[in-house]
Amino acid sequence: MDLVSLISETVIQLTGDGVVQELGVIWQHTRELLIVPILKFSVFICLTMSVMLFIERVYMGVVILFVKLSGRKPENRYKWAELKDDVETANSNYPMVLVQIPMYNEKEVYQLSIGAACALSWPSSRLIIQVLDDSTNPDIKDLVEIECQMWASKGINIKYEIRSNRNGYKAGALKEGLKHAYVETCDFVAIFDADFQPDPDFLCQSIPYFVHNPDIGLVQARWKFVNANECWMTRVQEMSLNYHFRVEQEVGSSTYAFFGFNGTAGVWRIDAIKEAGGWKDRTTVEDMDLAVRASLMGWKFVYIGDLKV
């Protein structure tokens, strides 16, 4: 090897070692000045949120224990009285109720949901069933329409509504459903997803809260599950959702605090929806979005744990 080659290799080696050392110094300074503080701050935030979550759980545990021991049921906190039939006034003391059933290709359950809605114990002259069919399968749309026609032939005031598009998805369907002229006669709207079947006395149990308490904007019922014992996963899911209903929503309702609408198995005062700005399709959590806006407008919400759908 000649002298020139040896000198070149030596220079390259020294230069390479210098670059590695320089990079090591830069990384050490970056870690000390940037990465470590960010990680410490992140750990602090996580610990703070964990403490807040723990405090929330303890608070809810104490409140729900007090609620159960004291028997603070909704009918004890709000005025509630059963509505009586009045043949002389053609049951005009019953408010007009709209029942909305949004569905999308619900071949397996459409008959169950429509049948349950049509079987609600409420004067037929004071009830409108509205099926909002966004199905894209023409065969299923035909089946749903035939089902609605069958119930209409039995004297049920049922409306089959479709759209030319699916803008806004469920929120868009609910929003469009409220635009029909016949809805102007309604005071309240009950919403049931296609896989929910209310018991016949659902309206009789929920509507009186609105009638006797004009500041109530939402009555939310509890969900029940037909396949809860199918496997260990469904049992875990049931426990998780039961905590949401039996603790979180029970505590919120009992302390007159905010809790969200669950998107189904609930009744809204239509004036509350209008005052809050109506359904918005800007989000996929349209139920919580509407609940937040209605709560900010001063409307109160009631959760009825004994009313299951």
UniProtKB/TrEMBL annotation:
<dbReference type="GO" id="GO:0051753">
    <property type="term" value="F:mannan synthase activity"/>
</dbReference>
<keyword id="KW-0812">Transmembrane</keyword>
<dbReference type="InterPro" id="IPR001173">
    <property type="entry name" value="Glyco_trans_2-like"/>
</dbReference>
<keyword id="KW-0472">Membrane</keyword>
<keyword id="KW-0961">Cell wall biogenesis/degradation</keyword>
<comment type="similarity">
    <text>Belongs to the glycosyltransferase 2 family. Plant cellulose synthase-like A subfamily.</text>
</comment>
<protein>
    <recommendedName>
        <fullName>glucomannan 4-beta-mannosyltransferase</fullName>
        <ecNumber>2.4.1.32</ecNumber>
    </recommendedName>
</protein>
<keyword id="KW-1133">Transmembrane helix</keyword>
<keyword id="KW-0328">Glycosyltransferase</keyword>
<dbReference type="GO" id="GO:0071555">
    <property type="term" value="P:cell wall organization"/>
</dbReference>
<dbReference type="InterPro" id="IPR029044">
    <property type="entry name" value="Nucleotide-diphossugar_trans"/>
</dbReference>
<dbReference type="GO" id="GO:0047259">
    <property type="term" value="F:glucomannan 4-beta-mannosyltransferase activity"/>
</dbReference>
<keyword id="KW-0808">Transferase</keyword>
<dbReference type="GO" id="GO:0000139">
    <property type="term" value="C:Golgi membrane"/>
</dbReference>
<feature type="domain" description="Glycosyltransferase 2-like">
    <location>
        <begin position="100"/>
        <end position="250"/>
    </location>
</feature>
<keyword id="KW-0333">Golgi apparatus</keyword>
<feature type="transmembrane region" description="Helical">
    <location>
        <begin position="41"/>
        <end position="67"/>
    </location>
</feature>
<dbReference type="Pfam" id="PF00535">
    <property type="entry name" value="Glycos_transf_2"/>
</dbReference>
